[in-house]
Specification:
Layout: E1 11-13, H1 20-32, E2 44-51, E3 56-60, H2 73-84, E4 90-99, E5 102-103, H3 112-125, E6 130-134, E7 139-142
Bound molecules: tetrahydrodeoxyuridine (THU).
């Protein structure tokens, strides 16, 4: 029997350590929570996607009375970005969540389905997608989605 281990690099940042573009992405993700449609969970998630053409697209989660028909902030925003700019690589996605009157202390991390969709963008444009996860305590930065979805089906880079 052989075994191998998989490790992921997660960088932990304070907001003040970020560069101006990164700060703006976090600010935009935080701002986007205001437009989330969350009558069922009351859990507002905002996302900001930076494209290779420097355009920033924001979005948020959209819920539905038939629960599976709703969509997470990450997928809403990525699909919209790809719908607007089909030929432009996705560079970074920043995510923030707001509930019970405040942003979460800990960063929230994308669900499995969103990780798969982020991976599709990374593979589609052959460009690593950086992920920034906002929490009041810390901001996690992951350099490419393969760190959050190891051994993924359809991965071009096994890291
Ligand atoms: N949600 C997101 O939008 N993104 C995540 O990363 C986690 C969960 C949404 C789905 C649902 O509308 C609400 O948060 C509660 O799960």
């Amino acid at each position: 029997m052989e075994e191998f281990k998989i490790s992921a690099k997660i960088q932990v940042y304070d907001y003040n350590e970020l560069n101006p573009v990164e700060k703006k992405l976090i600010d935009d993700a935080k701002e986007a929570v205001q437009r989330a449609y969350v009558p069922y969970s009351h859990f507002q998630v905002g996302a900001a996607v930076l494209l290779a053409n420097r355009e920033i697209i924001t979005g948020n989660n959209q819920e539905n009375v038939a629960f599976p028909s709703g969509l997470c902030a990450e997928r809403t925003t990525l699909f919209y970005a790809n719908a607007r700019f089909p030929d432009t690589a996705v560079d970074t996605i920043a995510i923030a969540a707001y509930t019970h009157g405040d942003f979460t202390e800990e960063p929230i991390t994308p669900c499995g389905a969103c990780r798969q969709v982020i991976l599709e963008a990374q593979n589609r444009y052959k460009h690593p997608v950086k992920i920034m996860l906002y929490g009041k305590k810390a901001i996690y930065v992951v350099e490419q989605i393969t760190d959050l979805l190891p051994l993924a089906f359809g991965s071009f880079d096994k890291g």
